[in-house]
Sequence to fold (204 residues):
Amino acid sequence: MIWAELCIELSVALMAGAVVMIAIMAGDAGDSSQADKKALALLRPWLSPEQAQQYDSRKHFEVIGSDTGTRYRIRHGYMMNIDQLDSAGNKVCAWCLVPVGNLAAGDCMLAQKIALETFESKALAVANRGC
Amino acid sequence: MATQVVMDHTGDSRHRFDPADAAAVAEAEERFKMLTGFGFTAAKRLSEGKSEVLKSFDPTAEETLFIPRLKGG
Fold:
């Protein structure tokens, strides 16, 4: 009898725990989605009209490096989303450069754009290169 | 009103201040120094998608963006 009561209490406790976990995860997803929207809204006015058009149609935009004049394509994403391009527009290699702090994609892309367009060499000095 | 926009995990946090209010400007300058001291890059938006990195507080900037320190992923 005692075992049956203990089993019931344990089941109730486990179910309550599961409900709390689901609620927490749903809340996180909501916050994350809100952060994504805010970050994309922040990015938009910093893009040139051409970059905005590229992003709207292909989910990426191109920037020109401030020090070397190199062309880069920043794809929607967080990591390894920067392609270095040659003069014909072919991918030469990829770069990973992220701001610390678990930021939304829009924030990451804006940070990457400003870094490459204003302090390219300094930014690439801390970035990881992959091909 | 001028705005300081700080990137964070919520998207961003905004701090608005009146450039004509000396106390508010001093507070904004203090925030600028604190954030850049922590490694944030401050930038202001120019026209046509261009931007400029700010090495010192610019009270005339309508919007100053603070980007956390960058690292390789």
